[in-house]
Amino acid sequence: MGNCETCIEIEQPALTTERLASAVRSGDVAEVRRLLDSGVCVNSPIDDDGHTVLDVFLVEHAGTLQAALSPRGAARRFDADALTAQLEKEHAHAQHMFKLLRDRGATVSYSYD
């Protein structure tokens, strides 16, 4: 009946704003780039409150910074130099993600409510 298999790459996840938000949450720069290159709008709202993927990024990055202040699990065994090196690595990755999103025009949501 249908030949949709010839039109759609079945192996790839759907091109949705939800998928973009998920990729931002997980820090998957390659997937974020793929989705944006495929036409997913960087500023489409991800929820009823109008939040964008840049809002998601900010929340995730804030969590990373907070975790650096209060290490848990295996990170508690790191010395100060190791914790600083880990934070530097995570921050560099976050800068890469932020630059990608901003280069594509991402903005934070804002309302006067």
Tell me what the structure shows:
The chain is mostly helical and 113 residues long. Helix content is 53%, strand content 0%. Helix 1 (17-26) packs antiparallel against helix 2. Mean pLDDT is 85; it is low at 1-6.
Give the SSE map.
Layout: H1 17-26, H2 29-37, H3 53-69, H4 80-103
Helix pairs in contact: 1-2, 1-3, 3-4
Per DSSP E runs of 2 or more residues, the count of β-strands stands at 0
SS field, number of helical segments: 4
SSE run: HHHH
Mass-distribution shape: globular
**N- to C-terminal separation?**
50 Å
In round numbers, the mean pLDDT is 85
Helix content: 40-55%
Low-confidence stretches: 1-6
**Computed structural class:** mainly alpha
Question: What profile does the largest beta sheet have?
Answer: none
Rounded to an integer, what's the Rg over CA atoms? 17 Å
- DSSP strand content: under 5%
Brief overview:
With 113 residues, this protein is mainly α. Helices cover 53% and strands 0% of the residues.
Offer a few descriptive terms.
mainly alpha; disordered N terminus
